[in-house]
Amino acid sequence: MRLSAGRIVNRRVRYSTLDRTFSALSDPTRRGMLERLSLGPATVSELAAPAKISLPGALKHVRILEEANLVTSEKRGRTRECRLGPAQLEEATAWMERYRSQWDRRLDRIEAVIEKRKGGSR
What we know:
Number of domains: 2
Order of helices and strands: EEHHEHHEEH
Number of strands: 5
Strand order of the largest sheet: 3-5-4
Mean pLDDT: 87
CATH topology of the largest domain: Arc Repressor Mutant, subunit A
Radius of gyration: 21 Å
Low-confidence stretches: none
């Protein structure tokens, strides 16, 4: 939270979908959880075990993934079962593709300059 014009603003509320997605994917523990969930549903305990983290710690990671719609969870008796969520990564993929294309063009120009200099030095 931060102070903004005399009031406290929760920065997470103001994040775009793209920001929440990248924020959720930025942590290796959360990426591991998503990998595990790609195999099928899992409990929070099952997600916590490979990362060697506590259940409260794992639950915090699950909540962040839920905020990004990458994961859904449902209480079943005494356990919480998690599944991959409805979020699609098209927006993140499109953003990365735009920048990948720019970098490809830049690297192609650098390569052309290097090749030109190699040819001129012989």
